[in-house]
Amino acid sequence: MRTKDRLPRIGDWSTYGELAALQEARLPEVLARAAESPFYRDRLGAEGAVGFGALPTTTKSDLRDNYPFGMRAVPGSELATYHESSGSTGRPTPSYYTEDDWVDLAERFARKRVGIRATDTLLVRTPYAMLLTGHLAHAAGRLGGATVVPGDNRSLATPYSRVVRALHDLEVTLTWSMPTECLLWAAAAEAQGLRPDADFPSLRALFVGGEPLSPARRARISRVWCVEVVEEYGSTETGSLAGECEEGRLHLWADRVLCEVRDPATGEIRREGAGQLVVTPLHRAAMPLLRYNLEDSVEVSYDPCPCGWVLPTVTVLGRAVYGHRVGGTLVTQHRLEDLVYRLSFAYGVLFWRARTTSEQLRVEIEVADEHRAAACAELAGSVRRELGVECVVEGIAPGALVPRDVLTGMPDVVKPRSLFGPDEDWDNAILYY
Length: 433
Ligand SMILES: [Zn+2]
Hints:
By secondary structure, the chain is an alpha/beta fold. The chain is built from 12 helices and 19 strands. The chain has helices spanning 3-6, 16-34, 38-44, 60-65, 99-110, 133-143, 160-169, 179-191, 215-225, 333-340, 369-387, 404-408, and strands at 79-86, 92-98, 121-124, 147-150, 174-177, 205-208, 228-235, 239-244, 250-252, 257-262, 269-270, 273-281, 292-301, 313-316, 323-326, 329-332, 352-356, 361-366, 391-396. Strands 4-3-5-6-7-8-9 form a 7-stranded mixed β-sheet, sandwiched between helices. α5 (99-110) packs across α6, α7 crosses α8 (179-191) and α10 (333-340) packs across α11 (369-387). The structure holds zinc ion (ZN).
């Protein structure tokens, strides 16, 4: 049977018991496939004697140590795409997929409460090189029959001015990006004399992921553009792991990926609760993963959600728990961001940065002259009140953090060439980077 005919779909099960049965039915094949890869052949033992429940986690380090193809369970000729992400170590974390794997990947990403339709134009504004994210949204857009606009955010060819032009002229209806991008587009649109809330009437939702998003920043993005913001959670090594329901909660795609939680203190692996998210994709051939530890801090719950989906919910704390101490208090970007974006909308604050010392927090916000005093006083007050730390807030001129030419510039990207006409400046004509 073809992969797309046997992949489970929401509605195929109606209780958590049925969901568990569906997962368990897949495990023998998942283990057998894994044993085809050199890495798991060693780990599972010669006769595959180690059962799933006794398996240790697979770490990012395991993936790096087995670069490039030590985790591969199919002949090289069956691979469709190769990706890698690189962390702070600089060593690549590889991942690769077959054509069949891509059916599951695209379907999972497309499971959105705001569906992707043939009448949509989807701007993909995450990297295409060498990560999965851009290709994932691209494939999900094509699956839904949408017109996909590849607008890679790390390409010289697509500066913000061009993105704003595309959003406007192509009547883009859906976008996929990091949340920060949506604020940069808004500033770039205003720099071109366009109003994000009025001059982009075709836009109906902003799909975002890839960085922590506090409730206030999410609300700000939604208000600036006057459309819904829909969150997504996943990684290059796994594809989409969770998507948002109508109640605004993230549900794990547990019919496609078995999700568990590891207590980092004891190493114990449980079905739910707080800890590191550990996943086992149930429909994947090229690079099987058994109990892959994403090392993201999460909380998984099986409490019923009013939306009716029989899928566990996940709260992703991720890097949100990371911060610096000021006095005795841990200040995280997540909490500080929430206070910045709770400032009055009229102040127009979109960009900020902060630095901690052991005694004090210093925050800079981009704000126009007429709102400077009020915005700074309001933020300093809320930081002292909510976080209980000493704080200095400085208002700086718009453009100081995000320069205007970043928002309006259109760099000239030309192909390398060697022959020039008599009036051409050959010293500035070749860009090899
Ligand atoms: Zn729900």
